[in-house]
Amino acid sequence: MGPETAEELVKHGFNPVYPEKHTSRDLALLLLNSGLSSVVAFRSRRASQDMKEILSPLIDYREFYDYDLVLDQSKLSEVKELLQRCEIDVVVLTSSLIAKSVANFIKDCHKVVTIGPMTSTSLRTLRPELKFIESRVSSIKGTIDVLESLRGGDNFG
After folding, report:
1. 8 — phi, psi (to 5°)?
2. Alpha-carbon distance 19 to 2, whole Å?
3. Residue 18 CB burial class (10 angstroms; 0-12, 13-18, ≥19)
4. Is residue 62 helix, strand or coil?
5. Which residues pair with 111 in a beta bridge?
6. Opening angle at CA 43, ends 42 and 46, nearest 5
C-alpha cells in the first residue's frame, strides 16, 4: 500500500500505484478513480471495513482474510511493566491493534510515535489528551525518519 511494498513489486516486474496517504480508505478511492470494475483483496482479519464499505456498492469487490494478528500476551505484559516504570523514552506504535493494547499504559514520561493515520485514530480514540507524532509516510522507514528527527532534537512542539 506504500513505497516499500511498491519497491518489492517493481523487483518482480510490476508497475505499482499507491495512494499518497497509506490508508485503506485512500486505497479504495484510488481504486475507484482508476476505472477498475472488479478487485480482490487479501487482508488481515482485523482490517478496517473502509475498503469494503466504499467499494462494494460500486464495483465487484471481494475480500479474503488470509491472516490474523495475534498478540503475545506474555510480551504485552512485559511492555506494560516497562511503560508503567517509565523505563522507555519513546513508544512506537505500528498498528491500531498495538495502539489499543498499550494506550492506557503510556505516560507523560514517554514520547509517542505512530506509523500513520489509522494507528493515530485508534490512539486518539482511547487517549484524546495524549500528544504524539504521526509519521508523514505510513511505513517503517517513515517512522524511522521520525525517530531520527527526535534524536536530532525535534520535539512535539
Report:
1. -65, -40
2. 7
3. middle
4. strand
5. 90
6. 160
Each residue's pLDDT tens digit in the chain (157 positions)?
678 888 889 999 999 988 888 888 989 999 999 999 999 999 988 888 999 999 999 999 999 998 888 889 999 999 999 999 998 899 999 999 999 999 999 999 999 999 999 899 999 999 999 999 999 888 888 899 999 998 866 555 4
Kind and range of the H or E element at 64?
A: strand 60-67
Residue 93: phi, psi to the nearest 5?
Answer: -110, 115
DSSP string for 106-143: --TT-EEEESSHHHHHHHHHH-TT---EE-SSSSHHHH
Cell of residue 48, nine digits: 478496517
> Which H or E run contains 38?
strand 38-44
pTM (predicted TM-score): 0.74
> Which residues, at least 6 apart from 90, have a Cβ–Cβ distance to it below 8 Å?
110, 111, 112, 113, 147, 150
Give dist(CA 65, CA 41) in Å, integer: 8
